[in-house]
Amino acid sequence: MDLNWLEDYLALAETLSFSQGAARRHVTQPAFSRRIRALEGWIGTPLFLRTTHQVALTPAGQQFHAQAEILVRALHQLRRDTLEAARKGAPPLAIAATHVLSFTFFPKWIRRNDAAARLGSLNLVSDSLQGCEQMMVRGDVTFLLCHFHPSMATRFDRRQFRSIVVGHDVMVPLSAPGSLGAPRWSLSEAAPPRYLGYSDQSGLGRILAGTWEAAGGAPALQPVFTSHLAATLLSMARSGDGLAWLPQTLAEEDIAAGLLVEAGGAEHHVPIEIRLFRPVSRQSEAAEAFWAAFA
User: What is the phi/psi pair of residue 107, to 5°?
Assistant: First the structure.
């Protein structure tokens, strides 16, 4: 058994694409395919159904999935704990945070909690929600900080991960103002406004998609641009390129300066939570102390 086989399996189980899985694992597709076959040979049964145009998990592959995630995470945790025991100083606590929270929320949040700030060095890794989820599932980080809404899809099985609410925010449709101060692009207009949206990698995009699905459909919009970075959409909205649903904490300075105005009423607001996620299993002493500072 090779740990790389398990990590390859998880990449393929998520992407259901040999080319995308190989790219994510930074290996060639033939090497990636050989390692998947080696894992299946070691187990003794196929984990994936392969057709010309599709890859799918077999029943055995589905059964293997949850335990493979737990095993990979446990092995990485064992390595970290062993290295920690071998040296005098504890390694930095690794925290993944989505891009927007890493520079709008995280610095103030940490400074407000003296107990957490005194625990030692922290290593903050910023990425899209998709990237942060991958790090969390692999065990590369101990904590994940992200926006959350009950309607959004996540990779976090409640049997393996738990979370606490550490803040609140609201997504608001915003546009640059026109010459008379009204929004240049408005949800109240008859014609669909130009829409600056989020890509599939974005957690904020997942929140909007889930909210609109629960409401029976999205507003009439004319999509013109997508990005997983809320800061990019903020800049483009400020320049008048369209409207975007942005976290109020990110846009508050532009709103106060009159550079952005609301493009729809309160019925278009989406209240969201800021949550801290962690594995259910017990972590290092420093990690447990960090969690206790906020729980």
Answer: -60, -45
Q: From the CB of residue 13, how many other CB atoms can be counted at a distance below 10 Å? A: 20
The per-residue b/e assignment along 37-54, b for 16 or more CB within 10 angstroms, e otherwise, is eebbeeeeeebbeeeeee
Closest CA to 245 of 253, 235, 254, 233: 233
Assessment of whether the complete model's pTM goes beyond 0.70:
yes
Helix (H, G, I), strand (E, B) or coil at 181: coil
Q: How far apart are CA 6 and CA 157, in angstroms?
A: 18
Domain spanning 168-271, CATH class: alpha beta
**Residue 281: its pLDDT value, please?**
85
Give CA–CA dist 55/13, Å, rounded: 9
Topology alike, domains 84-165+273-294 and 168-271: yes
Residue 120 has pLDDT above 70, yes or no: no
What's the pLDDT at 138? 81
Domain locations in the chain? 3-65, 84-165+273-294, 168-271
CA dihedral 18, 19, 24, 27 (to 10 degrees): 90
- The CATH code belonging to domain 84-165+273-294 is 3.40.190.10
Q: Please report, rounded to a whole number, the percentage of residues in the chain having pLDDT higher than 70.
A: 95
Work out the percent of the chain whose per-residue pLDDT is above 90. Answer: 51
The upper half-sphere exposure of residue 64, i.e. CA atoms within 13 Å in the direction of its Cβ, equals 22
Measured in whole angstroms, the distance separating CA 50 from the mean position of its chain's CA atoms is 29
Q: Which CATH architecture has domain 3-65?
A: Orthogonal Bundle (1.10)
Q: Which of 6, 3, 7, 75 is nearest to 281 (CA)?
A: 75
